[in-house]
């Protein structure tokens, strides 16, 4: 990896960017982090991701890779010999991709709206969120990780959003652990890995950030 230049355009609070950081840490890939201002977007972000103009963007030897799940697969393919994320079996790979997409569409998308919603709308979002977490408990079963004993692609894709669980619970007035204890136990096992514990921000920091956003949007 000598001579390689790896740069990550990110925002500290983004679970999507956290995925990339966890994957790079699992691989032992050194990189430079360049925090971005999403209110006043800089030229680097606009140049490297002109289509969506969003983070994260992984810049490898000057070439940009966008969209977090795409970046995870790119990282796994470029550094295949170091802690593989995706299983070798084609069917298992397809399943890992399926559940990562499910997590994107249900858990990440749900979290974005849950902590901002109110009343009956929020109650419905919480109900759906818990149901989707229960579906993932069924996938996890009694395994250590979603890849069995191996921490892999689905774990990397899912674990960052757990840094927002406390915020979701406070604003939604519900308990994830009471409804989905296996998910919370799994999240704790993930936090035992240095790649995760060194990446995910403190829950109180996330909550205070969300609180500031709600005040700025007049939602408090």
Q: In short, what is this structure?
A:
This protein has 220 residues and is an alpha+beta fold. Helices cover 56% and strands 8% of the residues.
Description:
- The chain is of the alpha+beta class.
- The protein folds into two domains: 6-78, Glutaredoxin; 90-216, Up-down Bundle (Glutathione S-transferase Yfyf (Class Pi), Chain A, domain 2).
- The chain is built from eleven helices and four strands; from the N terminus they run E-H-E-H-E-E-H-H-H-H-H-H-H-H-H.
- Strands 2-1-3-4 form a four-stranded mixed β-sheet, with helices on one face.
- Helix 1 (15-27) links the parallel strand 1 and strand 2 (32-35).
- Helix 1 (15-27) packs parallel to helix 3 (68-78) and helix 7 (165-172) crosses helix 11.
- It is globular, with a radius of gyration of 17 Å.
């Amino acid at each position: 990896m000598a001579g390689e230049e790896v740069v990550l355009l990110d925002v500290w609070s983004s679970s999507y960017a956290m995925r990339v950081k966890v994957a790079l840490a699992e691989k032992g890939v050194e990189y430079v982090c360049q925090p971005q201002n999403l209110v006043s977007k800089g030229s680097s972000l606009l140049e490297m991701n002109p289509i969506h103009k969003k983070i994260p963007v992984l810049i490898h030897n000057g070439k940009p890779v966008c969209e977090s799940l795409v970046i995870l697969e790119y990282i796994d393919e470029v550094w295949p010999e170091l802690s593989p994320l995706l299983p070798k079996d084609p069917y298992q790979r397809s399943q890992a991709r399926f559940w990562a997409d499910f997590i994107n569409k249900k858990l990440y998308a749900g979290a974005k709206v849950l902590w901002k919603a109110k009343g009956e709308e929020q109650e419905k979002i919480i109900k759906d969120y818990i149901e989707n977490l229960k579906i993932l408990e069924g996938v996890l079963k009694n395994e250590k990780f979603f890849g069995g004993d191996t921490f892999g692609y689905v774990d990397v894709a899912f674990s960052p959003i757990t840094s927002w669980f406390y915020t979701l619970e406070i604003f939604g007035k519900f308990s994830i652990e009471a409804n989905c204890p296996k998910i919370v136990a799994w999240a704790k096992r993930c936090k035992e890995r240095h790649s995760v514990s060194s990446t995910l921000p403190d829950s109180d920091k996330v909550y205070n950030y969300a609180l500031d956003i709600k005040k700025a949007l007049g939602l408090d």
